[in-house]
């Protein structure tokens, strides 16, 4: 007992970063524990009878089936016992059985999460590239016509309802112009590649299935385009504001005075200085993309996390809802953790060691 | 630095090229393949455990049942794997298997397979389909003959034997893979990978959240002559997307289009519109404690005759019909005509009911359209029509999952709900009787209308089809005249296909028989 504080101090003194990482990890575990309590409590407080919803009229009128169903899922246990069972199941990778799909929630999510991550990753990469470029352009050309155009574009991106944009772009690019494929992750004639990562593009490449890869990539384009519009608008405005603030900074002036210009000044001085608020918004946007794709997934028949969450919620699939809640919690904690670490990489002033 | 920019530009160019190449690869044409878009309700490929619509559609293609229905006619079962005859009491049904029929592995279908398959469902109490076998005893007579018996007359039994949950499985194969006839059955995992039936298709792959692929059963020796050897059933939850996919030839069949969407389809699309088996109705609670003035039968009569049914039907779209009673069209005992608006009768009934201008709350689920009919505009129109008749209505919408509890518990005074059959037989509508499940939700106890109770019993226990039809008609007529329900609309079922596809026939259980889809 007496050695513990000294050990901790010594450990922290040697490596503040490791100490920080351990503290953050501990906090994250506690937060996840909190997420399980909140999702479990909320799921069980929702009015409605999930058993009747799952079984349907006919089966719900059959006492033998209702009894077997309740017993099989442990729903006859008191709520605290159910919660303990849920938590002990989580430690073994068991998130329960979905009342809607009758499959293990972990298995359902292992298919849904990669589907959403695949579009969200691509969308955030596209958004970052376009948003940084447009935001920087607008800042450099402040007050000029190009600045006005970029600001109007970003406003449009932020204002257009995603669901409407998804339907319109699907109709226009697929049905009218015939340059985009239909809904889903792959054309019906193709079989999904052998699962390694769950990303069809990556898995197809790993399996050497070139046609499947190009088809999967083509199916990604429209959902990514629609999802990116909002994020591009958001990033463009933040980048413009951040870059404008940095452009007047002394070190940028000094750089200019030394003769720096063009990409070197932009990437080496301006964007690096403006990167912290951009990084914050990218982290938040990525989290939103991962957890908020319900409507886009519905339009493009994308079997991802958003569709799974919506279907689980509307059919009172409580294990499904809790599983999604946990995944979203993990996603946000991981992103925040990564963003905090990146702060240190980008800004020496906040480094711990 | 310029070189780096060139690399970036080249990467973007490559990505765009790949995307375009993907687009080119995205529309493969295959005349022997068909793609069906539908909003999935699918949780297993084990027919004995399935009890949801998409699962039925899949099971119907993979497996066969003892009896079947011809096309959309669900009034009389026809031969499937077997023919049948019953005794005079309608308590013993003898099924004789057709000669020479085989499973997809080439093995013969025998009485042992029938006994195992039906007893498996009867023994798996955890199966949602278990109740279908309640009260039915299965006995093997010889290798090709099976006897099904019940304690009481059961003319619904032939209709039950059309249900894909009671499909006949290859017993040897299923037993080999964990199949039993009790709760220890462990064959579901196997049946989620491989089909073990005699239907025109076999299971290729299944993903319960995205798509099911079926391929031709090369050992099939039944009556169907399939045109499409590969079938992809995709989960497309958004009906607007189903419509675009169909118009863009990414799919060939769209199952869930609403009446409005059907009306705006482009040329070259076939639409098969027919009344579904769902009935949307008003519930008027007969319990004074719950409903107050609504418990007076005259109040229900006032509502019944105050409504303008054709005006309500305008909200429903293609294929819909006015509900003529609690039994929808195409079912035994369905009434020919519905109620007509008679404002004089409504006014007299309202006066007799003791209604004094108080506001009545109309509850309904506002996020659960049935057959494309949204309940909010329907409720608003009912509110307007009843206001014209002197009844003040206050609307109380709520999400389905929260609203349904008060409906099931019988605590709603006045509400809009719907009912669909669990299997294709008019016995499904007997729960509307006084003292039965739906009747009690309307606070209608058996003591309040013993005549209706007797009519329901007569329909339940009829021993020949003529007697049964009359009994169901009498039951439906009595409910129409004095029941606490006001049937409003039977929404349409709209199945749209590419112009070169024919053979669509709606069925209330399995939606459509994929094997019957034909290329023109």
From TrEMBL, chain A:
- Matching CDD domains: TM_PBP2
Point out the signal peptide segment. Answer: none
Q: Give any GO molecular function from the UniProt entry.
A: dipeptide transmembrane transporter activity
Q: Does the keyword Cell membrane apply?
A: yes
Please state every residue range assigned to the domain named ABC transmembrane type-1: 113-343
Top-rank taxon: Bacteria
**Localization annotation:** Cell membrane
Predominantly, its location class is: membrane
Q: Mark the transmembrane ranges.
A: 21-43, 119-140, 152-175, 216-235, 274-302, 322-346
Keywords per UniProt: Cell membrane, Membrane, Transmembrane, Transmembrane helix, Transport
Q: How does it sit in the membrane?
A: Multi-pass membrane protein
Alphabetized InterPro entries for the sequence: BPD_transp_1_N, MetI-like, MetI-like_sf
Query: What Pfam families is this protein classified in?
Result: BPD_transp_1, BPD_transp_1_N
Q: Give the CC-aspect GO terms.
A: plasma membrane
Please state which protein family the record places this protein in: Belongs to the binding-protein-dependent transport system permease family.
- What is the recorded name of this protein? Peptide/nickel transport system permease protein
Name the source organism: Salinibacterium amurskyense
Its ancestry begins with:
Bacteria, Bacillati, Actinomycetota, Actinomycetes, Micrococcales
From TrEMBL, chain B:
**Which Gene Ontology terms describe the biological processes this protein takes part in?**
peptide transport
Name the CDD domains on file: PBP2_NikA_DppA_OppA_like_7
Which Gene3D superfamilies does the record cross-reference, listed alphabetically? Dipeptide-binding Protein, Domain 1, Dipeptide-binding Protein, Domain 3, Periplasmic binding protein-like II
Q: Which residues form the Solute-binding protein family domain?
A: 77-433
A GO cellular-component term linked to this record? ATP-binding cassette (ABC) transporter complex
The record's annotation in InterPro entries points to: Peptide/Ni-bd (IPR030678), SBP_5 (IPR039424), SBP_5_dom (IPR000914)
Signal sequence coordinates: 1-21
Compartment annotation:
Cell envelope
Which keywords does the record carry?
Signal, Transport
Q: Does the keyword Transport apply?
A: yes
**A single Gene Ontology molecular function, please?**
peptide transmembrane transporter activity
Record's family?
Belongs to the bacterial solute-binding protein 5 family.
Name the record gives this protein: Peptide/nickel transport system substrate-binding protein
This chain's source organism reads Salinibacterium amurskyense
